[in-house]
């Protein structure tokens, strides 16, 4: 992941909701102009975390590592 996401978390202290989607390339391939119908997209959500506490106080690298860990765990649950 890019560190820009971590910088936004540190600056705005939002509620963070990790999610992973699978199947979007079937619906709208890269370079495609129109979506394809009848395709399946799976979306997995992690636990919401209020970043006003511990998360926003961490370093950019630590926040990026946290997000990467969350997304890899969600990706492992995808079909």
Protein described:
This protein is of the alpha+beta class and 79 residues long. The protein has four helices and four strands. It has helices at residues 3-12, 24-27, 54-57, 60-77; strands spanning 15-16, 19-22, 42-45, 49-50. Helix 1 (3-12) packs across helix 4. It is elongated and about 45 Å long. The mean pLDDT is 90.
The portion of residues assigned to helices is 40-55%
Query: Mind summarizing the main beta sheet?
Result: 2 strands, antiparallel
User: Which H/E pattern describes the elements?
Assistant: HEEHEEHH
Rg to the nearest angstrom?
15 Å
Protein traits:
single chain, 79 residues
Short structural summary:
By secondary structure, this protein is an alpha+beta fold. It is built from 4 helices and 4 strands.
SSE blueprint:
Layout: H1 3-12, E1 15-16, E2 19-22, H2 24-27, E3 42-45, E4 49-50, H3 54-57, H4 60-77
Antiparallel strand pairs: 1-4, 2-3
């Amino acid at each position: 992941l890019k560190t820009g996401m971590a910088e936004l978390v540190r600056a705005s202290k939002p509620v963070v909701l990790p999610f992973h989607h699978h199947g979007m390339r079937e619906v709208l391939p890269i370079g495609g102009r129109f979506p394809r119908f009848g395709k399946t997209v799976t979306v997995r959500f992690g636990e919401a975390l209020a970043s006003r506490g511990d998360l926003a106080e961490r370093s950019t690298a630590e926040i990026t590592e946290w997000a990467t860990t969350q997304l890899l765990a969600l990706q492992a649950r995808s079909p």
